[in-house]
Amino acid sequence: MAYALQQLINGISLGMIYGLIAVGYTMVYGIIGMINFAHGDVFMIGAFIALITALLLSAGGMLDGPAAILLMLLISMAFTAFYGWTMERVAYRPLRGSFRLAPLITAIGLSIVLQNYVQVSQGARVKPMEALLPGGIEVMRDGGFVVQLSFTQMLIIGVTLAVLAVFTLLVTRTPLGRAMRACEQDRKMAALLGIDTDRTISLTFVIGAALAAVAGTMYLLRYGVIDFYIGFLAGVKAFTAAVLGGIGSLPGAVLGGLLIGLIETFWSAYFSVQYKDVAAFSILVLTLIFLPTGLLGRQEVEKV
Amino acid sequence: MLTRRGLIAASAGLGIAADARAQGSTGPIRIATAGPMTGQYAAFGTQMRLGAEQAVADLNAAGGVLGRQLALEIGDDACDPRQAVSVANQLAGRGVRFVAGHFCSGSSIPASKVYAEEGVLQISPASTNPRFTDEGGWNTFRTCGRDDQQGQVAGAYIAKTFPGRKVAILHDNSAYGKGLADETKKALNAAGTTETLYAAYTPGERDYNAIVSRLKGAGVEVAYVGGYHTEAGLILRQAKEQGMNLTLIGGDALVTNEFWQITGATGEGTLMTFSSDPRKRATAAEVVQRFRAKNIDPEGYVLYTYAALQIWAQAAAKVNSTDPRRVAAALKAQGPWQTVLGPISFDAKGDVTVPDYVFYIWRNGSYAEI
Q1: Interior/surface letters A102-127, b for 16+ CB within 10 angstroms, e for the rest
Q2: What class is the B2-144+279-344 domain?
Q3: What is the pLDDT of residues B240-266, one digit of tens each?
Q4: Contact by Cβ (8 Å): A71, A53
Q5: Which residues of A touch B241 (CB under 8 A)?
Q6: pLDDT per residue over B272-322, tens digit each?
Q7: Radius of gyration from C-alpha coordinates of chain B
Q8: How far is CA B24 from the centre of its chain?
Q9: Stretch B361-368: mean pLDDT, rounded?
Q10: Do B51 and B8 form a contact (C-beta atoms < 8 A)?
Q11: For A10, nearest residue in chain B (alpha carbons)
Q12: Predicted pLDDT of residue A100
C-alpha cells in the first residue's frame, strides 16, 4: 500500500511534466493541423534559459528561496516564448498554404537546428545543477517503508495545476481564446469575420512555448541535469501523451501525460524496468485501435 | 586500375625497404606510442607521449636495448577507430617493432588486428575493455586492468564490508556497465552474498524514481551501479530525496567531478574502484622525481606508458632479439618484469595477473583512496 502510494507520487510528478509539454503539441495541432516536432527542443531551450538564469542569480549570490524560482520561471517563459514566436514567424508562416508535409519537414529541420545550436553554444556535456529545494515531507509510514513527497514534487504538481487553470481560463473566457477556437474551427471563416488569424497563430506558438518553458524549469528543478538532447526523449513521450489523450484536446493532453507517466512508473514498479517503454507504447496502440481519436479526441468531421 | 595496382606495389615495396632498414643490426630500433594526440582526449595522448619520451631517454642513457639506441615514433589516432587502423598501417610500414598504445579501447582493438598481421607487438597502457585481449592475437598486452577485474574487486569488497546488508546490482545494459555488473555479481555470489535485486535501467533518462522506490521497497542499503556517472548520480540523488540511506558503489566511470556536481552533498560516502595512484609507489619514486625535475606531473597514464616500454625492453634483452613473436612469448612465459608500477606478470591472454584496482571514496566534493 505504502509502496503503491510512493509509486503513484512518482508517476504523477513525471506525468505532469509530460502533460505540460503535450499541451503545446496539441494546441498547435488544433489550430493549424500540424505536428510541431521542434516543440521538444523548445522545452530543452526553456530548461537551458532557466539554468542560465540560476547561474546568473548564484553569481549575484541571490540563488535561494521562492523568489529565485519564480524569477527563473518568468525569465525562462519570456525568452522561450520569444523563441516560439520567432520559430513560427521564420519557419512556419512562409509555408502556410503550402502542401501538408512541408511544415512537418521544416519542423524536423528546426528541431535539428535548435539541438545543434545549443550543442555548439553550450557544449555537448551534461549541465548539472544542485538541488534548490532539498527535502520533503513524510506522507505515511508502513513498517520500514516511508512514503516521501519532496518539496520539488509538490512544486511541480502545484505549478502545473495553476498554469493549466490559468490557461484554461484564457482559452474559454478571453477574446484571444475565442479567436483561437474560431481559427481552430475554420480559419478562412474566422478571417472573414475580422479575426487576425496570423496574430492568433503567433500567440498560440508563444503560449505553447511558455508552457514548455514551465515544463523545462520544473524538469531542471526536479532532476538537476540537462543537456542539449533532453528535448528528443521528452518530446516523443509528450507527443505520445497528446495522441493518447486525443490530439487537439487540451484536457486530453494532460490526461495522456499523466497516464503515460503512471504506466511507465507502475510497470517499472511491478514488472521489468527495461520494458516500461514497450508497455507504454503497447497501451497507446491498443487505445488507438479501439478509440482512433484518442481518449478525449473529437471525431473528425469531414468538411465539404 | 593499372596505376592503382602500380601504386600499391610501389608502396608495398617502400614498406619492405623501410622494414629491412629497421631490421638491420646497426641502426636504431624503431618503437612507437600511439593515442589521441589531438581531439577531445588529447590530454591522455599527451600523457602517453610524455611517458614514452622519458622511458626512451632513460633506456638510451642506459645503453639502449641489445646495444642499440631506440627511436620513438608518435602516432595520432584521435580516438577514432578508422584513424587508428591507418596509423597502425603507417607505423608497421615504418618498421616499428613495438607499439605502446592505443588509449581508447575502440582504437586499440581494430589496431591490434593490423599489428597482428604485420608482426608488431602491442602493449596498451589504458584500454580496459576485456575484448582487447580476449579477441586479441599473440601480440596484445596491457599494463592497466580489465573492466571485469574491477568487478571482482568490487564484489569481494562489498561482501566483506557490508555483510548481512541487502545489496542491489543495477546496470545500464552497455558493454561496460553490464560487464562490470555481471562480474561484480559473480564475485559477490562466490563470496556467499546473494543480491536482493538485479535490474537494468535505461541510460539517458532523468527519472529513476520508480526504480529507486523499488530499492526502497526491497529494503536495499547498498547498490552497485554498473554504468556512467550521470545515471549513477541521478539514482543516488533521487534515493536521498525519497528518504533512503543508500550507499552507492560504482566503477571507474564515477571518477569525474561531474558526478559530484550532480549529486551535491548527497554523493558523500560514494565508493568506486579505480587504479591506485602509481605516483605514490616506492618503485616509481626515482622516475617520478625525474619527471618533476622537468616540471611534468606524471599523472594518469604517464607511468603506465613508461612501464609498457620498460617491460618490452626487459623482455627483448632476455630473448636477445627484437623479434616481436619471440618477445611476446617471453612476456607471457617469463617475468615478473620490474617496472615503475611494481613487478608485473602477464597471463596467457596478455593481461596483468594482479589487478591493481583499489577503492576510492567521495568526500566533500573530492575523492581519495581508502
Answers
A1: ebeebbeebbeebbeebeeeeeeebb
A2: alpha beta
A3: 888 888 999 998 778 777 788 888 888
A4: yes
A5: 131, 134, 136, 148, 150, 152
A6: 988 887 888 888 888 999 999 998 888 778 999 999 999 999 999 999 998
A7: 23
A8: 33
A9: 87
A10: no
A11: B209
A12: 81
Residues of A with CB under 8 A from a CB of B: 3, 6-7, 10-11, 13-14, 125-126, 128, 130-131, 134, 136, 138, 144-146, 148, 150, 152, 219, 222-225, 229-230, 233, 264-266, 268-269, 272-274, 276-277
What distance in Å separates the CA atoms of residue B338 and residue A297, rounded to the nearest whole number? 75
* In contact, B262 and B234? CB cutoff 8 Å: yes
Task: Look up residue A20 and give its three cell numbers.
Answer: 505540460
Beta carbons within 8 Å of B326's beta carbon, 6+ residues apart: B319
Residue A251's pLDDT is 87
Q: Which residues of B190-228 are buried (b: 16+ CB within 10 A; e: fewer)?
A: eeebebbbebbbbeebbbbbbbbbbbbbeebbbbbbbbb
Task: Check CB contact under 8 Å for B204 and A233.
Answer: yes
Amino acid at residue number A130: E
Which tens digit of pLDDT belongs to each residue from A103-138?
889 999 999 999 999 988 887 777 888 888 877 888
Phi and psi torsions of A123, nearest 5°: 90, 155
Reported ipTM: 0.86
Closest by Cβ to B219, choosing from A131, A144, A229 = A144
Write down the architecture of domain B148-269 according to CATH: 3-Layer(aba) Sandwich (3.40)
Q: In this model, does residue A80 exceed pLDDT 60? A: yes
Residue B10's pLDDT is: 47
Domain B2-144+279-344 and domain B148-269, same fold? Reply is yes
Model pLDDT for residues A204-246, shown as the tens digit of each residue:
999 999 999 999 999 999 888 888 888 988 999 999 999 999 8
Q: In B, which residues are within 8 Å of A156 by CB distance? A: none
Closest by Cβ to B214, choosing from A125, A131, A269: A269
Question: Any CB–CB contact under 8 A between B318 and chain A?
Answer: no
* CA distance linking residue B165 with residue B219, whole number of Å: 9
Query: Is B213's CB within 8 Å of A223's CB?
Result: no
Query: Average pLDDT, whole number, for chain A?
Result: 88
Name the residue among A13, A126, A273 with its Cβ closest to that of B258. A126
- Contact residues, B window 145-204, toward A, CB-based 8 Å cutoff: 173, 199-202, 204
Both ends of chain B: CA-CA distance in Å? 64
β B70-76/B247-250 pair status = unpaired
Q: What are phi and psi of A124, to 5 degrees?
A: -90, -10
Instruction: For residue range B109-139, list pLDDT tens digits in order.
Output: 999 999 999 999 999 998 888 889 988 789 9
| Residue B25: predicted pLDDT | 60
Res B242: pLDDT: 87
Per domain, the residue ranges of chain B are 2-144+279-344, 148-269
Residues of B in contact with A13 (CB under 8 A): 209
Pairing outcome for strands B366-369 and B357-363: antiparallel
Q: Chain centroid to CA A27: how far?
A: 11
